[in-house]
Amino acid sequence: MRVFLKMNKKGFIGAVFAAPWFIILFFFALFVFFIIFTIVIPFIVNDEIKGEIEDSSLSFSLINFFRMQSSKGNVHDLFYYYMKNSDAGLFDEIRTRMREFLDKDVCIEVLVNEKTISGEHFNDCGEKQGGVVGVAIKLTDNYEFLNFDKEKVKVNFYRLNINKFWLRQIRDPCSFLDKNQCLNWVGCVLEQGECKNG
Amino acid sequence: MDSKGYIFIPGLVIGTLIIFGYALLLFATENKDLPTKVIGSMQSDSLKLISDAEKELLDLDNIARYAAYNALVKLGDSNTAWDTNLFANIERDFNILYEKEMNEYLGKTIFRNIGFTYIYDFDNKLIIEGLAKEELTSEKDFIKYRAMPNFKIIVDYDLKVYDRLYKRYSEWGKDKKCVQNSDVFEEMSVICAEEGEFLNFEVVTKDFGYVQPKIKFKIRKTGELFST
């Protein structure tokens, strides 16, 4: 209180002149925080919202993907048959449908009663290793349904986390995948033991 | 300005920096709800609610179809269905089996508490409509999405196959001979029954998709999952 009283006598402006560097620092800090709060944070948040909208678009796409007709009925039925007998022809058909309909940076993992299915496909997108390239994948969406045998099937959709600006530069994610993961990502093909963009 | 004035200004600056810094830290770490309250979040939430509901409805459509397949198989596999009295009530029997199957499936979904009224049409194809008695609602914050989970499925299977089978049964019953050229025979791989045992049909082991391989007669062809 005595300080304020003292300042009233000398004047606030006098105090400013007495400590100019702190005042300059003060306004500089205000400017920096202004930038952070008005530009950087909204930018990050907008990026997240854009990511959510993008994820929603995938959700609608995958609904229509599952509705697609197939040689066995629809895509649900293809998965059901594949889970029963791991037939390579069925996998090829599922993969063809996926490539027709879904983005290339998508990976599908299938769980039946919370357990991954056997075989080489639909059981590893790389998330257990912390992502394909470090933190480059995220669980975007999932779809749960009952199959003919009344089992709960959960299909997880992963995609490259391209909303983060430092990951936009990843042009060739397939080269980071091991063989098993390569078989699961839509945009990758295994050629002579090497995973390539396809 | 005396020495106390020198303390005030740096204190003001440093204090402000600390307050802003702390606020930034809060936004960055603790305040997870912040992003949901910015422009676009409501639209995003709305889309999410709609897509989630659509997924449930898609699941329901499939369940309705699976229940029909199961009911048809059980109907064909049931020895009681070959009782002459039950031939006349085959549609009623199908309804009972279908609703039992539906209840088993629905019991494992979010529709378990939503009652359905079923409308059947057995003319040439099997058409089943399910009319929900309650809405399916999903909500987030103050956004609420409602949908009536009605469904309609069409299965290319004609229950009148049982009438034709009954006709064959009647013919067989008169002269005790197999009627190989019967129109029924073209549709069903019913072999000649052993004398006095009409129920002893051939067990057809053929992959009919979802249909269990062991069935007592060949299901009429052309259905997407029943195709031969």
SSE diagram, text form:
The complex is a heterodimer of chains A (198) and B (228).
Chain A: H1 2-10, H2 12-18, H3 20-67, E1 69-70, E2 73-74, H4 75-85, H5 88-101, E3 106-112, E4 115-116, E5 137-146, E6 152-160, H6 179-182, E7 188-191, E8 194-197
Chain B: H1 3-30, H2 41-77, H3 84-87, H4 90-106, E1 116-121, E2 126-132, E3 136-140, E4 143-147, E5 151-155, H5 161-175, H6 183-187, E6 204-205, E7 214-215
Antiparallel strand pairs in B: 1-2, 2-5, 3-4, 6-7
Helix pairs in contact in B: 2-4
Shape designation of chain A: elongated
Task: State the helix count of chain B.
Answer: 6
- Low-pLDDT parts of chain B are 79-87, 176-228
For the record, give the distance between the C-alpha atoms at the N and C termini of chain B, rounded to a whole number: 100 Å
Assembly context of the chains = heterodimer
> What structural class results from the helix and strand content of chain B?
alpha+beta
Care to count the β-strands of chain A? 8
Identify low-pLDDT runs of chain A.
Answer: 1-5
Number of strands of chain B: 7
Report the largest inter-chain contact.
A-B, 49 and 45 residues
Largest sheet of chain B: 3 strands, antiparallel
Rg of chain A, Å, rounded? 27 Å
Q: Percent helix among the residues of chain B?
A: 40-55%
Q: What structural class do you assign from the helix and strand content of chain A?
A: alpha+beta
The overall pLDDT of chain B, averaged over residues, is: 69
